[in-house]
Design goal:
The complex is a heterodimer.
Chain A lengths: L7 E10 L2 E11 L4 E6 L5 H8 L7 E6 L2 E3 L4 H6 L2 E4 L11 H5 L6 E2 L6 E2 L1 H14 L17 H14 L4 E5 L7 H16 L3 E6 L2 H7 L2 E6 L2 E7 L5 H8 L5 H14 L9
Parallel strand pairs in A: 3-10, 3-11, 6-9, 9-10
Antiparallel strand pairs in A: 1-2, 1-4, 4-5, 7-8, 11-12
Chain B lengths: L2 H5 L4 H18 L3 H6 L1 H22 L7 H18 L4 H25 L4 H24 L3 E3 L4 H8 L1 E2 L3 E2 L1 H18 L1 H11 L1 H6 L4 H27 L1 E3 L4 H13 L11 H17 L10 H25 L4 H9 L3
Antiparallel strand pairs in B: 1-4, 2-3
Classes of the chains: A alpha/beta, B mainly alpha.
């Protein structure tokens, strides 16, 4: 297994639901220790693309490769067994379960013998808390606490730490910062960087260009089901990316004029017309 | 154990409700506590109800509901009475037949629930009606009567229908046994985690590798079989079975389970809570006979208790989610320049 081969690659992937073409000739790849940002406006086909990579849907044509070999991902289970972990905005965690129990759902540590296996709460809590703290979330120190008591960023961190702990090699993050405040989002971005530092391949789906630019090594912009642009860090400016996402309309120009107005008017946005 | 851990427990609301009910009866009804504690009426009621409330509670924690138990209780009685009373088969065959019917109805409930997206309230409403129809017509066709008598042998009477000290039904011991098993399943074995996860977020639970469909079917089979068991015990104790009855159990189990702190939408609850909820219900409905309060008021008291308990459970659940030692930590982080 060479370092050069991408961990996960899509080659000429198409997806249609009946007569409707959702994805057209998608080519993307992500390497270990690299963050690929998938940018796109609502309805661009981002969620379908995630579902192809996490085994929920199958491509109509084209290949999915892992470490250079073609693979099939018939179920979400198969994808996670191959090391592809998907973390949704709030998915994967259970608000009314304790941190320890939520962390080990489906793979509970047990002690004891035969049919008298007992859920090992102490071990579960210790491992879960340590895994999350290793990602820099030091505020989580009690594995009995309910997940619902965590902030949105902490819940994301818990889900990411869980995926990494159970051997994920590819981390698909579906709009992890969409519902978060500025500080919480920064939290999650730090964790994305930490996952990258540990050699994971991260696919970061977002429509917030600023967040993408903070962590991304490689960018792909999706418009109406096709990759409209594919470039590396530093090759495009924020304005260019925003324009691309909006489908070539001069969003950046509009944004600049609003910012200019706000600068001139003590931070007030222009009145609605 | 400090206060914050205590308030995180699902059963805290039900314990406070139980205390409130007892205090109310003592203060306004002049209840003699010793007499109430030793009374068989509410313990017998709680045991019969509790055996059904435990699996129904587990189902509710898993995010589902089963009201077909209302028909399964008379169905259990009738099956054992028809097989062993009317046809004179050994009692063991009658009991096995009734339990098998419970397993079958649960399997049907579970299969429909996992193969369709119809809410389980509607599915089990359908099987409730269907089982009622089957039981009434088979009683009329096979035995020619809506009431069938049964003469159980002594050993069956001892195991399922004896009165201990002349007033306590032996089913109380079965209730205690079932409670221990359910406690072990939900809180000690890893299976309990699966049930919580299923009620919390079924899609995520399935993605985490939990066999949600099989687990759901098993829980439905458990609840209808438990209901059939209560029916069997009733038929053996009273030497007869009627096609009617059992409908009261539907609401009574739901009240017990919800007062016990189980979240109707799933993901939260405990066996201790279900037990306390059942005892609370039994004391409210039977304890009124020990008071000077006119007994026609008892449903009003049950209703108010239910609402109070649900309100308390709601606040405690929110409190549990917020019970975070936040403030000192944040200051520390700021001090560390983070």
């Amino acid at each position: 297994m060479s370092d050069k081969a991408p961990i996960l690659a899509l080659r000429g992937v198409n997806k249609s639901f009946g007569p409707i073409d959702v994805l057209h000739d998608i080519n993307i790849e992500v390497r270990a220790g690299e963050v690929l940002c998938l940018l796109g406006d609502n309805g661009a086909g981002k969620s379908t693309l995630i579902k192809l990579m996490s085994g929920v849907h199958q491509p109509t044509s084209g290949k999915i490769e892992m470490d250079g070999a073609v693979v099939a991902l018939p179920t979400p289970r198969a994808a996670s067994e191959k090391g592809i972990a998907t973390v949704h905005q709030f998915g994967g965690t259970f608000p009314l379960m304790s941190i320890g129990r939520s962390f080990f759902v489906g793979v509970e540590p047990t002690k004891g013998w035969g049919p008298f296996k007992v859920y090992d709460r102490k071990t579960a809590n210790e491992i879960a808390v340590k895994a999350v703290q290793d990602f820099g979330i030091t505020r989580i120190d009690d594995g009995d606490r309910l997940v619902g008591g965590l902030s949105g960023g902490e819940r994301q961190s818990l889900a990411i730490a869980r995926a990494v702990h159970f051997g994920a090699r590819v981390l698909i993050l579906d709009e992890p910062t969409a519902a978060l405040g500025v500080k919480q989002a920064a939290h999650v971005l730090r964790i994305v960087n930490e996952a990258k530092r540990r050699g994971l391949a991260v696919i970061f789906i977002t429509h917030q260009v600023m967040h993408a630019m903070a962590v991304g090594d490689h960018f792909a912009v999706l418009i109406r089901g096709a990759i409209a642009a594919d470039f590396k860090k530093g090759e495009r400016t924020r304005e260019e990316i925003t324009d691309l996402m909006a489908g070539g309309e001069t969003m950046a120009g509009l944004e600049a004029s609003i910012e200019g107005y706000m600068a001139d008017h003590a931070g007030h946005p222009p009145p609605a017309v | 154990m400090n206060v914050s851990i205590l308030t995180r427990r699902p059963e805290i609301g039900s314990i406070l409700s139980l205390i409130a009910v007892i205090v109310f009866y003592v203060v306004f009804g002049g209840v003699n506590l010793g007499k109430l504690a030793g009374a068989a009426s509410w313990v017998n009621l709680a045991a019969n109800l509790g055996i059904v409330a435990l699996p129904v509670g587990l189902l509710m924690i898993a995010g589902e509901i089963d009201i077909s138990i209302g028909a399964m209780i008379p169905a259990g009685s009738m099956t054992v009475a028809i097989l062993s009373g009317h046809f004179g088969l050994p009692i063991g065959v009658g009991i096995a037949g009734a339990l098998a019917l419970g397993l079958l109805v649960g399997l049907v409930n579970g299969l429909i629930a996992t193969r369709t997206t119809v809410p389980t309230l509607i599915i089990t409403l359908g099987t409730l009606m269907a089982v009622q129809g089957i039981i009434l017509s088979s009683a009329m066709l096979l035995a020619g009567n809506a009431s069938v008598s049964l003469t159980p042998p002594d050993w069956a009477k001892t195991v399922f229908g004896m009165l201990i000290a002349g007033k306590y039904q032996v089913i109380i011991c079965w209730w205690a046994g079932f409670a221990a098993v359910f406690y072990w399943v939900l809180h000690v074995s890893p299976l309990g985690n699966w049930i919580y996860a299923m009620g919390g977020d079924q899609t995520s639970a399935r993605n985490a590798g939990i066999p949600t469909a099989r687990l759901k079917i098993a829980l439905f089979m458990l609840s209808s079989t438990a209901a059939a068991f209560v029916g069997i015990c009733g038929a053996i104790q009273f030497n007869s079975a009627q096609v009617s009855g059992g409908m009261g159990y539907i609401f009574n189990t739901i009240v017990s389970v919800v007062v016990g702190g189980v979240l109707l939408t799933g993901g939260f609850g405990s066996v201790l809570g279900i037990l306390v909820g059942t005892v609370t219900f039994a004391i409210v409905s039977q304890g009124i006979y020990f008071t000077q309060i006119e007994r026609n008021w008892s449903n009003l008291i049950i209703g108010v208790t239910l609402l109070l308990a649900v309100g308390m459970n709601e606040s405690f659940r929110n409190f549990a989610m917020r019970s975070v030692r936040k403030k000192p930590r944040v200051r520390k982080e700021i001090a560390a320049g983070r």
